[in-house]
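Input record (one chain):
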Amino acid sequence: MREILSTHKELAHKLAQLEQKIEKHDEEIKVVFDAIRQLMTPPEPKKKKIGFIVRERSAQYRTLSRKAVKN
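The corresponding structure, as predicted from the sequence alone:
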């Protein structure tokens, strides 16, 4: 009778260990699938600038000095 109880306890303990491993693996698999889903989502398209681009040098404007303005 003691042998049966001890084997029953051992089996129960092993089953509990297996359940813990399965739960851990399920969580790890979920993390992997979440990462894959993130990689599969397309990136947001870049917004195109409105307007035009000037590719030439700007003109140099000169300001009058204070002395020139007083005269």
